[in-house]
Amino acid sequence: MADINLGQIAATTMENYHDTLVDNIFKKHALLNHLRENGGTKMYDGGRKIRVPVMYGSNSTVKAFSGTDSLDLTYQEGVDAAEFDYKFYDVSVVFSFTDSLLNQGKSQVIDLLKGKIKQAELSLSERLNDDLYNGAASDAKEVTGLNTIVAASGTYGGINGTSYAWWRSYIDDTAEALSFADMRTAKNTANNGNGGSKVSLIVTTQTLYEKFFSLITANYQMNPVMTKETKRLADASFTAVEFEGVPVTFDESCSAGSMFFINVDNFKLGIMNGADFKTVKKAEPADQHISVQHIVFGGNTVVDRRASLAALKNKTA
Question: In degrees rounded to 5, what are phi and psi of residue 83?
């Protein structure tokens, strides 16, 4: 058997697999998939932080006029900036010389390498998805999750929601059974106000999803109408039904008793150019027969209007 250059095969295979890897990372989980397919991801060129303009007031110079009426030139405040630190993730793919010996032939080596890449891909996807809900609660190196973002107080993006009412989400944390009324109030409140968009996805736990489904079963059976996005999620193998025109789905990483109302215009996953699940080859150790490749992600969740997000918490079936 001809000598197999592990490093070269690993580098070439991972380079060729990059686009598929990125697609797969965003395919498995409903929230990641919804963001990717609806403009909820955005590339940033780097720098120390992601800076996002935040509008907290209206422009008072708007007026009707006729002919030569004087126009209002009052300088307007009401625009600030939220700042978000980049967070970085790494997963390694290690392939040993003995792997090649036990998998004779270049094609079998490549098959094994693809299996290791798939393992790394799934692990990174699971971790990133979990952190979209729970991240930064105990580890500041993680992306900031919805449990921290969607709140009626606290500092996020460098702005203190306790001090500024416009930087607060709607939260209903009354311990009670899930109801249509609670969901409707959360959705409508998140939809209110200038600078925001309509709720595009409701995501919850399996327990609350099944409770919601039990509440709508009669109407759903008689009127199974689906919006384009609900149908797309269903076609992508996600379990989803609708609440007043908004897809509702569930995720195992969503915190118990919680239901989040988000939209892809005001809530995004910011990704750093050059760290978009980029493959990085490391020097092979002198004292080991291994080839090491890394998959690197850099970015963070980004919000420009916290009031456009809402959550129900402490709800039961």
Answer: -125, 135
**Spatial separation of the C-alpha atoms in residues 290 and 116, rounded to whole Å:** 14
Is residue 213 included in any domain, yes or no? yes
- How many domains would you assign to the chain? 1
Q: What does each C-alpha distance from 66 to 70, 73, 95 come to in angstroms?
A: 9, 16, 75
In a domain, 61, yes or no: no
DSSP string, 110-155: HHHHHHHHHHHHHHHHHHHHHHHHHTTSS-TTSPPPHHHHS-SSSE
Q: What is the pTM of this model?
A: 0.84
Assigned domain for 62 exists: no
Amino acid residing at 301: T
Q: Is residue 65 part of a domain?
A: no
Rounded CA-CA distance 182/218 in Å is 19
- Give the pair of three-digit tokens for residue 39: 């403009």
Q: Which domain holds residue 258?
A: 6-53+80-316
Q: What is the pLDDT along the chain (317 residues), one digit of tens a residue?
A: 444 455 556 556 666 666 777 778 888 899 999 999 999 999 999 889 999 988 776 666 788 988 888 888 876 565 578 999 999 999 998 877 777 666 666 666 667 777 788 888 889 999 999 999 999 988 999 999 999 999 999 999 999 999 999 999 999 999 999 999 999 999 999 999 877 789 999 999 999 999 999 998 766 654 556 789 999 998 888 999 999 999 999 999 999 999 999 999 999 999 999 999 888 877 777 778 777 888 899 999 999 999 999 999 999 99
Query: What whole-number distance in Å separates Cα of residue 205 and Cα of residue 209?
Result: 6
